[in-house]
Amino acid sequence: MTHAPIRTEVLVVGAGPTGLTLACDLARRGVSALLVEQAGALFPGSRGKGLQPRTQEVFEDLGLLTAVHAAGRPYPRMLNWEDGEPQGEWDLVGDPGPAVPDPTVPFPSVWMLPQWRTQELLHERLRELGGEVVLGTALSGLDQFPDRVEARLTGPEGAERTVSARYLVAADGGRSTVRRAVGIPMAGGQVDPRPALVADLEIDGLDRRNWHVWPKAPGGPLLLCPLPSTTAFQLFAQFGTGGEPENAAAGGAENEAEPDTSPEGVRRTVATRTHLPESALGRVHWASGFRPRTALAERFREGRVFLAGDAAHMHSPAGGQGLNTSVQDAYNLGWKLGQVLRHGADEALLDSYEEERLPIAADVLEISTRLHRAGGVGAGGLRRGPRTEQLGLGYEDGPLTVEARPGLAEDALRAGERAPDAPLDGTANGTANDAADSGADSGTSSGATSTADSGTGEARRLFDLFRGPHVTVLAVGRALPGLPAGVHGHRIDGGVTERVYGPGLFVVRPDGYLGLATHDPADLPGYLGRLGLR
Q1: DSSP per position, 3-48
Q2: CA 276 vs CA 78, 83, 236, 401, 441: distances in Å
């Protein structure tokens, strides 16, 4: 019996952080999406556990940051060990935050949360928005047509169904089936030939205030990080750095062998390299061996198929960039699909996804590779800083960026950059750390006036005004012109906003970047029309 194709607007293959983020963003835009995952359950490990400040801003906009903050914690201080004795503490991510809060950056510090828990919270948010993940379902083939993609999916019982979608997004990881199916090459290489082991396990008798480091352990450095909201630690161990291969799978020299990822092998590695007795080492929840490498797809689009996350770029774990860059891919692509499918924007808008995200991915790959090769795991060897926070990454040279204000100072905010936060208090000071967490549209508060389109909510920060799937126009220090339906407009005079933005008219994209900056209201209709807003 032949079944009629399942129809959806967007098919998302892969339910990791990339696919889940994209599915959440599409759901709140009213775009029908089918999210499928080959595995029978979501990824169980802690691997990508660092959420950078920019990713926290994305999660606030999507309505799950309160849950993320409740489940996680700031990064602990590192504690070096040698010969069974503590040697001193140091900070991996720099100071916990600026001495004087910066009102333009509401979340100044990286936040720790195991990847499996981040995925659970994204899944919960997706369900709240009316979406779901179809588990145990793999893509077995696809065909592209001028107006659609037809994909063949194989379910857990081996039954094959066809899905017809306007677009398909590959979020299925570094070994992407979709990427291979559409023939997009991926170039890269090893960052480090030495294999590594990462695992989550229970440990008794080790304090959870610190991230513990044995930089001179026999066989290679070893780290144990307490995972928030659990009783487990994440193990990272490097091999091939001298000494005996105490946990190498049989077959070859140590620098060619893979780590033993069995529970016994994981516990043996910890017991051999640290002062912890094997009796203190409990259940191993998950383990994986890998060799750090980077790779970048030649292009991020083939017809109606887009690559996102690890399917498009693979990172060394140094600097905590992989998951965060993947979330940004989804956030960039989601609003563009929404404008095309819900607002009638020209499909050419989708070309900007690759044009904006591929250079960013290449830049971030360079950052993470340099961090990995910067040194060992001793004090300061892997210390991270402002470049890893992703707040300074933008689209100044992108196809959607129009900076129309002549004579700007060298340090002036420009189109293409992240739209900074600011308190709506009409003063030069203030903090932006106490906003309500909601995916709903927000209105305005004192210090701002708006069109009727925006409602009259209790906004206290610019990010309250930006939150939601809409495009925002800020009129800073000048009159707010008439705007098309669906565009949220706000006039703001004085305070931190005018000091940071300067006077002008600013189009804030749904992903929180400045698209247009101008003094002339006549520039707005043409720009907004490119986004399907007329």
Answers
A1: PPPEEEEEEEE--SHHHHHHHHHHHHTT--EEEE-SSSS------S
A2: 17, 11, 15, 55, 52
DSSP 3-state of 527 = helix
The structure's pTM equals 0.91
User: What distance in Å separates the CA atoms of residue 522 and residue 516, rounded to the nearest whole number?
Assistant: 12
CA-nearest of 171, 168, 134, 174 to 154 is 134
Which amino acid is present at 393?
L
Q: What is the rounded CA–CA span in Å between residue 203 and residue 281?
A: 5
Calpha distance 40→156 (Å, rounded): 8
472, 516 Cβ separation under 8 angstroms: no
User: pLDDT per position in the chain (534 positions), as tens?
Assistant: 457 889 999 999 999 999 999 999 999 999 999 999 999 999 999 999 999 999 999 999 999 999 999 999 999 999 999 999 999 999 987 655 556 789 999 999 999 999 999 999 999 999 999 999 999 999 999 999 999 999 999 999 899 999 999 999 999 999 999 999 999 999 988 878 889 999 999 999 999 999 999 999 999 999 999 999 999 999 999 998 644 445 555 433 344 568 999 999 999 999 999 999 999 999 999 999 998 888 999 999 999 999 999 999 998 776 668 899 999 999 999 999 999 999 999 999 999 999 999 999 998 888 777 776 665 444 444 445 556 788 989 999 999 999 999 999 999 999 999 999 999 975 433 222 222 232 333 333 334 443 323 343 578 999 999 999 999 999 999 999 999 999 999 999 999 999 999 999 999 999 999 999 999 999 999 999 999 999
Partners of 6 in the β-ladder: 163
Torsion sign across C-alpha atoms 72, 44, 176, 371? positive
User: Which residues on neighbouring strands pair with residue 189, listed in sequence order?
Assistant: 294
H or E element that contains 305: strand 305-307
Q: What are the φ and ψ backbone dihedral angles of 415, each rounded to 5 degrees?
A: -55, 145
The 3-state DSSP class for residue 223 equals strand
**Per-residue CA distances from 345 to 11, 41, 260, 337, 350 (Å):** 20, 36, 52, 9, 9
Radius of gyration of the chain from Cα atoms?
24
Percentages helix, strand, coil for the chain, rounded to the nearest 5? 25, 25, 45
Best CA proximity match to 176, nearest among 345, 53, 295, 320: 295
**From CA 32, how far away is CA 440, in angstroms rounded?**
19
Cα–Cα distance between 491 and 443 in angstroms, integer? 12
| Closest residue by Cα to residue 475 from 446, 452, 497 | 497
Distance from C-alpha of 224 to C-alpha of 79, rounded to nearest angstrom: 10
DSSP state, residue 74: E
